[in-house]
Amino acid sequence: MASAKSSRSRPAGHSGVFPVGSAAAVGSGGGGGGDGGVQLADKLKIFKTDNFDPDAYVQSKCQTMNEKEIRHLCSYLQDLKKASAEEMRRSVYANYAAFIRTSKEISDLEGELLSIRNLLNTQAALIHGLSEGVQIDSLTSGPEGSAEDDISNVEDQEPSEIQKWSADFPDMLDVLLAERRVDEALDALDEAERVAVDAKRKQTLTAAEVSALKRSVSDNRQRLADQLAEAACQSSTRGIELRAAASALKRLGDGPRAHSLLLSAHNQRLQCNMQTIHPSSTSYGGAYTAALAQQVFSVIAQALSDSVDVFGDESCYASELVTWATKQVMSFALLVKRHVLSSCAAAGGLSAAAECVQISLGHCSLLEARGLSVSSVLLKQFKPSLEQALDANLRRIEESTAALAAADNWILTYPTTGIRPLIRSSAANLALQPKLSSSAHRFNSMVQDFFEDVAPLLSLQLGGSTMDGITQIFNSYVNLLISALPGSMDDEANLDGLGHKIVRMAETEEQQLALLANASLLAEELLPRAAMKLSSINQSMDDLRKRGTDKQNRVPEQREWKRKLQRMVDRLRDSFCRQHALELIFTDEGDTHLSAEMYISMDNTVEEPEWVPSPIFQELYAKLNRMASIAAEMFVGRERFATLLMMRLTETVILWLSEDQAFWEEIEQGAKPLGPLGLQQFYLDMQFVIIFGQGRFLSRHVHQVILDIIDRAMAAFSATGMNPDSVLPGDDWFMDVSQEVVSMISGRGRAANGDREVNSPTASVSAHSMSSFKSHGSS
User: Fold this and answer.
1) Are both 470 and 518 inside the same structural domain?
2) Where is the signal peptide (predicted)?
3) Rounded to whole angstroms, how far apart are CA atoms 253 and 111?
4) Taking CA atoms, which of 250, 388, 508, 552 is between 20 and 30 Å from 695?
């Protein structure tokens, strides 16, 4: 049995328990440096050897070490001790069911061995009694006179002191038991056992007297044990009396029964105390949880103290204690779940649920400080309810935001009364407050509260589901914003997940840009800032060793989460640009403003056309110019987003032109070829886009697409047998016409030589672009 217990008490191999610094500390002490990845079993191997000498080990390590190195070694040994205890606990929990079952069987076996010992003692006494009877019978077979002499000698002989004590023992014990003088009764029973053994060895008592004494000891032991058990079961027996009864039972050799009665008495006390705690529909859930937790965990703590005081750290008793405590915590968790968490989960009361969990885990931490870990039982029971509350809270945010979106006027304002601001409002920091529409303000405020409520629950590993939930409700809100764009309801792809929600349309360009301002500010700043609350609290819960690694692991996760949010904003931006591009390209009747016919038909007129960019491209620039002015006020500090938005709108129009197969089939293979005037107008349109787009509305990619479009148009013209250079005006002509229209639309006056100086860098770049266009056409 001892060897089995010893093998169970040794921790299994473990890796990654200590920070690198601790491993290095051993290295400095002679234990081999750089063993941060060494298995825990290997580190503990030296301590497991039979000939391990602590004094010699310390002398070998500390003989040449200075004070700092000795402190490092002491710190390392303490860490090793903690890691070993933690590994022992994990090993026990890993095979807990088998461990409890084996310990119970061992306890039962010890009880059976005690019964067998008592039975053997009784049988031995019986055999001795029979043997004494045979000897007496043999004496009667002698001469009658000698027998009479022996009897007379026995009758005349005075009883010895030991015989007198043996005869008075039952009466003395009856008095001690009646007066409940337990310790004296136990001492008397132990003395009687010693007397019986000594009398048998020295033959100071006859075999019958020894047998009678042993029977008296056995009967009175059982009688005392029953009396102690009855006393332990009384509700009035508490504290010192209860521990004394259990300790006395243990002295009687019935330790398993004593421990079970100890736990039973605490359970009886707990059930009695819990009858005074009644949940009510009007009561506060946190108050009920606190009152219930106070009763349950205080009783468990007292039972732990009593068990340790009476039985020490014996594994069989510790296992029974852990099983009993786990059962009590399970009952507590079910009560809290039934009377508090269920209603919180159904109503989305995440804050109330989080408070109950915090109260419960706080009491668990007090037990863990004393070596009893039961928090995993609570977490397993509470997690489903908390996940339900989390989902209900997310649905409430989604539904509340959708209700406000139905009446949102899509005008950006600072937070109003009733909506929680990020910082205190004042004249100095008003500009730091976010400008959002009413539904976005509501969404942001509820998400901020949500993150604060869920932050204390990170020990339940809800961080992943929390971030996924925020991603889903933000996606739903983006869908609402997309549906607020005029014309988006015609796109069935935008209706997925929208259900029957009603959204107020954003009619003006300012309102439509406000949709993008809502989404971009939430995705780029407000939601990531709120999510940092989870990261900071989670990091503070980790120990020093894990902190750096977890931070490195969380950074990519946070970046990926922000990329998900940004992709949703990009979807809204693309819908915005697609809608405005379609408004430019198509009429209300479905006809197009940008067709091959508008260029081919120019050579069929007799009169010289008025050379200005086509209306669609003038309207494109006018729209971009208006939106850029509005965006400059809306996207303060986020000018890059506004610039990319304008570039994306330009790209949408140009890519549509580049990919319109009907347009190019008519240009390249139509019945009427593209003529000189049509080529000049097309060239002017593309040059106009280059001029107004450079540095503001045109990306490098779209610039290259325009070059390819011009190249394709010139190739189609060259296929007619004419040279494009012979029919197109010089570069300055295209630049002057484009600049004049740009100035006219933007409202800026032109100098005598145009907006740019001849030798300015911008002018040289434009001239270079014209040369590139002409060279592409010539080739």
Assistant:
1) yes
2) none
3) 9
4) 508
Mean pLDDT of the chain: 76
Give alpha helix (H) positions in 635-730: 639-659, 661-669, 676-693, 700-718, 724-727
Q: Is there a contact between 364 and 378 (Cβ–Cβ < 8 Å)?
A: yes
Tens-digit pLDDT profile for residues 374-397: 888 888 888 888 888 888 888 889
The answer to whether residue 721 is domain-embedded is yes
Measured CA to CA, the distance from residue 491 to residue 417 in angstroms comes to: 37
Kindly report the three-state secondary structure assignment for every residue of 517-536: HHHHHHHHHHHHHHHHHHHH
Q: What is the DSSP letter of 592?
A: B
Compute CA 118 distance to the chain's CA centroid, rounded to the nearest angstrom.
57
Window from 97-101, 201-205, 717-721 with minimum mean pLDDT = 201-205
C-alpha 584/C-alpha 623 separation (Å) is 9
Q: Do residues 35 and 43 touch, judged by C-beta distance below 8 A?
A: yes
Q: What is the CA radius of gyration of the chain?
A: 46
How is residue 57 written in tokens?
């080990």
- Between 340 and 557, residue with greater pLDDT: 340
Number of H helices, E strands in the chain: 31, 0
Look at residue 28 in the predicted model and tell me its pLDDT.
38
Tell me the pLDDT band of 4, cut-offs 50, 70 and 90.
very low
Counting the structural domains of the chain, the total is 3
Question: Can you tell me the distance from the alpha carbon of 624 to that of 610, in angstroms, rounded to the nearest whole number?
Answer: 24
Would you state the structure tokens that stand for residue 698, as one six-digit string? Answer: 């045109």
Tokens matching residue 482: 């997309």
**pLDDT band at 515; cut points 50, 70, 90:** very high
The domain in which residue 635 lies consists of 596-746
Helix, strand, coil in percent for the chain, rounding step 5:
75, 0, 25
**Measured between alpha carbons, how far is 53 from 35 in angstroms, rounded to an integer?**
23
Q: Could you tell me the two tokens for 10? A: 């040794």
* pLDDT above 90 coverage of the chain, percent: 28
Q: Which residues contact 530 (CB under 8 A, 6 or more apart)?
A: 447, 448, 451
Distance CA 625, CA 746 (A): 7
| Lookup: tokens for 739 | 């600049």
Q: Tokens at residue 527, please? A: 């939601």
Start-to-end CA distance of the chain, whole Å, equals 97
Alpha carbon distance 209, 131 (integer Å): 13
Distance CA 9, CA 313 (A): 12
**Cβ-contact 359, 338 below 8 angstroms:** no
Q: Based on the domain organization, do 564 and 604 belong to the same domain?
A: no
Q: Where are the beta strands (DSSP E) in 79-187?
A: none
SS (H, E, C) 250-303: HHCCCHHHHHHHHHHHHHHHHHHHHCCCCCCCCCCHHHHHHHHHHHHHHHHHHH
Given a cut of 70, whether residue 106 has pLDDT beyond it is yes
Of the candidates 593, 598, 763, 766, the one whose C-alpha atom is nearest the C-alpha of residue 682 is: 598
- 586: β partners: 592
Contact 534, 455 (CB under 8 A): yes
